[in-house]
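Structure ticket #2291
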Amino acid sequence: MPPVRGRRVALVVAAVLMVPAGLLVARGLDGPAAAFAGDALYAALIYVVVAAVSVRARSAVVAAVATAICAAIEAFQLTGIPAALAQSVPAAALVLGTTFQWTDLLAYLLGAVSAALVDAVTRRAAGSSRGAPNSPSSGARPPHPPGGTPSR
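Resolution: structure written out below.
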């Protein structure tokens, strides 16, 4: 399986496994810590989805995009539209939330950064240097042999 395809498959599998974990936290646990953990898992799921779409993107970039998406959804809650939508489509509350809380922004940041760290470690373990100083994608020039040509 080519590396890009294999990475995409692994990310989709991770996303599929994260959904029940997130639902378990959202529906099975109570309290502020559970809400914070659920928001962090939500951001990690968004990270995985963005990474699956852009498999070659750097982990830091994917984390920034995931955090921005989550922050935009959180800001959208200030309009009241998600809360109204959740009245007629209850599942919308799982995706869009209903009320703005600034602490959710911190949870999203921590969730996306945590997912990025796991992703970066996993990539390195799989042999993908992804922009390390000695990789072709870093733009660094390969080492040149000493000046001149060998004499015979």
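Closing remark: The longest helix spans residues 3-28.
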